[in-house]
Amino acid sequence: MDEKGIRILVSDQIEQVGRDHLENEGFRVDFRPGLSPDVLEEVIPQYDALVVRSATQVTAGVIEKGAKLRVIGRAGTGVDNIDVPTATRRGVLVMNTPGGNTVSAAEHTVSMMLALARNIPQAHMSLTGGHWERKKFVGLEVLEKSVGVLGMGKIGREVARRCQGLGMRVLAYDPLMQADAALKLNVELVNLDELFRRADFITVHTPLTADTRGLINDESLSRCKKGVRIVNCARGGIVDEAALLRGLESGIVGGAALDVFEQEPPGESPLLRHPRVVVTPHLGASTEEAQEKVAVQIAVAIADALKGRAYAGVVNASILHMAINEDVRPFLQLAEKIGRLAGQVVDGKIRRLTVSGEGDLVSGSIELLKAGVLDGVLSHFHPDPVNMINAPVLAAEMGIEVRELKRGGGKEFLHSLGVVLETEKDSIDIVGTVFGQSSWRLVKIDGYRIEVNPGGYLLIYRNVDKPGFLARVGSILAETGINIGSVSLGRKKAGETAMTIMSVDDPVPDSVLERLSQLEGVSGLRFVDLRD
Ligand code: NAD
Ligand code: MLT
């Protein structure tokens, strides 16, 4: 498809520079921020890609209606406004811009912490309201206070560095953080309980997940120092708002600074009016620099993905980045072709797929090649559109066991890919390789040595290894006007069973397949369509 045929909907406020980049790449871009959920579902079938910030809710309904949708791009970090499992199930790539707004979010967090410590918003409101209340707004220094950083990812680390600059002690909790990383950052790695017990300020920087929802709750607050200050510039819901309000009212919590809310906008929340709460309307990433960076990053990422040039910032198919490696790409095409062939020749419900690699190139990209084989196998009969993003999910749903086998024994080829597909009553074992950059070859089927280019139409059968057999098959095809392109014969021992694979120029009608299968000595005859 030419680029102009590719339509991209930008449904949130994304900087012009990002939209320009997409247009300069030749795509047709519609900028329509503020669409209602109903209108979004109505228009989404026209688009190949959707670009959002945090306002648009990309629900399962939106994704399912997006019949042409290939990519959803999030100009920012959190993808909790996107139904990622549904996108993956439908084979839609989800991309974000990790790092693009890290510094802005960290600076905002520290600003909020200081504003909270010194009552700046409250004092501002009082003064602009005509009062001069110096006693009322006495604050506290942050120097030598302990700050507990929950989540030491990109933003948490930047916040920690800035807090250290202010002379604070940093207590860090992150299940993925190793002791040597903590040592390098000069932070004290503690467990959750210790963090709650010792911190004067707690700032959260985790994603919102089932594990982190309500991480700050009644129970955790009850373990905190009296007067603890809570900062949430990550995601609404990590701090349980009702528990926070109870903590403020009981005095356990000395104050809170919130940039994000369980509901956005938060409406009539009593937290907003609480005198010891400082709030901003999800402004963590709202700087000129961050917005420009994320707009450009997501535009570049989407254009690269749509044109198959690169896959940066992919959230739901990390294997794809290997697909652009020029040496791996031909093997990926081989994997898909082998998968299509295997899927067409086996009978019955698929039970198991085993993939094995020979040579570093194939073994090193086996995860990607597995997805390629599955894509080929499933695209033959799955009712939904299949690609490498959703093939592993669909296979798991169908109860197909997918495994990788380390190949032992001597090396036959520099690089080769082996695939065994087993059903409840059948199986096929195929080995293929690539010569040069794009000469794909099947080199073994069910242990028979052959040499076949996997493309076009193929006839595959076993026959008794006797003279004149090929001529009989050839004459039946000739009667029907079907031209034979090439023939590969493999046998394990002269006079026993042989494997024949024949490329033909046209589809073979069922009636002819029937006649061929009735030839004495022929078994397992299959017609396979491997056209591109
Ligand atoms: P990140 O992925 O780099 O870091 C997240 C960290 O949280 C990881 O190190 C992870 O190990 C850790 N983590 C996960 N579960 C945890 C748990 N149960 N306890 C402790 N740590 C846990 O992400 P990031 O870019 O640093 O973003 C952090 C948060 O900030 C995200 O929620 C993101 O959506 C949000 N964010 C908000 C704004 C804003 O405008 N307010 C801007 C950017 C990012
Ligand atoms: C993010 O996750 O990147 C933030 O919520 C920033 C935003 O989109 O405003």
TL;DR of this structure?
With 532 residues, this protein is of the alpha/beta class. Helices cover 34% and strands 23% of the residues. The chain has four domains: 3-98 and 289-316, NAD(P)-binding Rossmann-like Domain (Rossmann fold), CATH 3.40.50; 102-279, NAD(P)-binding Rossmann-like Domain (Rossmann fold), CATH 3.40.50.720; 323-454, 2-Layer Sandwich (60s Ribosomal Protein L30, Chain: A); 456-532, ACT domain (Alpha-Beta Plaits).
Q: What's the total number of strands?
A: 22
* Overall morphology: elongated
How would you state the average pLDDT, rounded? 95
Q: Tell me the CATH superfamily of the largest domain.
A: NAD(P)-binding Rossmann-like Domain
The CATH C-level class name of the largest domain: Alpha Beta
Percent of residues in helical segments? 25-40%
Sheet with the most strands: spatial strand order: 8-7-6-9-10-11-12
Distance between the termini: 15 Å
Largest sheet: 7 strands, parallel
Strand content: 15-25%
Q: Which structural class best describes the helix and strand composition?
A: alpha/beta
Bound molecules: nicotinamide-adenine-dinucleotide, D-malate
How many domains in all?
A: 4
CATH-defined fold name of the largest domain: Rossmann fold
* Number of distinct helices: 19
Q: Which regions have little confidence, pLDDT < 50, spanning 5+ residues?
A: none
CATH architecture of the largest domain: 3-Layer(aba) Sandwich
Rg calculated over all Cα atoms: 31 Å
